[in-house]
């Protein structure tokens, strides 16, 4: 469908009325929760049993709240098949089914939101968990959502006007392993204002993460030299890494019913982040000693200080109108969303291995703005035979501006350096001029026009949904780092059919089956046409603005069993065949570093497969008369296969498995509760040209205990109680031939540690 045909499609539906009756469902006042019920509750929250035909797992906030997650990412650690490749005690880019964040669609209130990732992903640590009403895990794509969901969709629904009657305040603090304290304050109120309902939520969260890293580097790998620890030692690096910042967020929603079966909703979500990252690293020429400077016969070779100031602003505002129209129910939505990031980073290093000492300084400025404007219309009709027909249009304009400036300086300094009382930052002059990084100064504009049609049929035992979505995209790329560079334009279109079946075996058991086609659009940094020198080892990267999206046909088959009144257990098997994979290829052109280096270029090349099994269980132990004991278990086994220049591998950084288990024990007579969760994800392997890495994580243990009064709850939570470690083994190569022949430039073992931290939180309802 070309853009010009959209008005004709709107006109065509006006004649589609027939004997169809309007669907008039809307929220009811009795569904609104009283504030005391949210703050002071003795009942344990379990996974909801969603009535969606498409297999959907639904988790209310009560499922997560007892463990006081700070962000949406922290909450989603308890959901099946969600993994992270973050630093210890951080959860940012969700990797549903272990695939990179770009394969997972993140929605806020059903809407896509822009983020900083070049792979179009949105980091979940941007959303405070306190503002979440529920989380929906949609395992397969449907026609009435954007098709960017190869791995699946995570829809984070924020509180709206029908979520709460009354208000509450949450206040407390966090204490970290280095005795640093951070504050945490939230306030939420909901109620009637005029003829409608309003909810306002504010969250102020101190963020902090102190980590210690140790890296051991060798000239060869144990696959070539089993005795590498003694024979090929190169250097050791120790690093302190502190992330220190504050998040402030605001959620506003106003809902107003008017006329007959009509309503309007106004909503806004705002996040402001100010963050500082402080790193101090020392490289030694000995595996354990830290005595003296290398130039004087000691062990310290380099002293490095790397700091970054980060400012990020997110907002999304919109309106939704629901009203009878053309014999059915029409929904109109308009949304404006923006992500703005400014980063100033400076790295200063002094090399003490030779006299005179050498001081090097690098400064980087990152300026990124991502704007999105979207309009949508959908029309639905319900027939007298429980059949629902829905169709609609979606339009979006996106503009992404990015610019990276760098400055470098180098000079000789005196040799009276004392790292105990000085930092390399003390030598910084900031005199060198800034210059734009090639390809990093660009402007990308993208325009989408989508249309969809689906039919749902609900019957006593068998329910089904069939639909198709047609997505048409035009984009242009302007490389601002080159004078007189041409604007490159491209467009593509594709149809995304989907079908879902739900079969009710009996009152407690049902089957789900889905088949759906979905898509993943190319990374922004791969689309920019400029040449980036030494992007992969000593090899250069040439962008390719003519990349096509990856597409996938996926299958999901699941069975779900109800346990008593509130328990549920589910088992799902999934398979994805992904076509037109984007992989790096060797152009054969000599790279900027001379012979044996090359210019690499991303191309649509080959196919891949992803598969796995997912188990989830949440239930009270009523079967053994333990009504006040809830148990939880999620376990996923994940696998995949793809070909690259070096042979077969899994999709990069896909964990082999992930599981979490836990329990909550409520003691009604004393109004207290306690519980714990234990989480572990398997190792992951990633390979690009010039580098291979295997990542493994230690287990994560969390514990809570709470005491409740009439309108007050006090909760103590301990997190990362096992002092989890992140371990990475890097194979590094200078050239493609070196990687093929296993001629190592460097082998590195890195270990990152973060200690436990504790939260004491008080909630007061009013």
Automatic annotation (TrEMBL):
<keyword id="KW-0998">Cell outer membrane</keyword>
<dbReference type="Pfam" id="PF00593">
    <property type="entry name" value="TonB_dep_Rec_b-barrel"/>
</dbReference>
<keyword id="KW-0675">Receptor</keyword>
<dbReference type="InterPro" id="IPR012910">
    <property type="entry name" value="Plug_dom"/>
</dbReference>
<feature type="domain" description="TonB-dependent receptor plug">
    <location>
        <begin position="59"/>
        <end position="153"/>
    </location>
</feature>
<dbReference type="InterPro" id="IPR036942">
    <property type="entry name" value="Beta-barrel_TonB_sf"/>
</dbReference>
<feature type="domain" description="TonB-dependent receptor-like beta-barrel">
    <location>
        <begin position="207"/>
        <end position="721"/>
    </location>
</feature>
<dbReference type="InterPro" id="IPR000531">
    <property type="entry name" value="Beta-barrel_TonB"/>
</dbReference>
<comment type="similarity">
    <text>Belongs to the TonB-dependent receptor family.</text>
</comment>
<dbReference type="Pfam" id="PF07715">
    <property type="entry name" value="Plug"/>
</dbReference>
<protein>
    <submittedName>
        <fullName>TonB-dependent receptor</fullName>
    </submittedName>
</protein>
<keyword id="KW-0798">TonB box</keyword>
<dbReference type="GO" id="GO:0009279">
    <property type="term" value="C:cell outer membrane"/>
</dbReference>
<keyword id="KW-0472">Membrane</keyword>
<feature type="compositionally biased region" description="Basic and acidic residues">
    <location>
        <begin position="233"/>
        <end position="246"/>
    </location>
</feature>
<dbReference type="InterPro" id="IPR037066">
    <property type="entry name" value="Plug_dom_sf"/>
</dbReference>
<feature type="region of interest" description="Disordered">
    <location>
        <begin position="204"/>
        <end position="246"/>
    </location>
</feature>
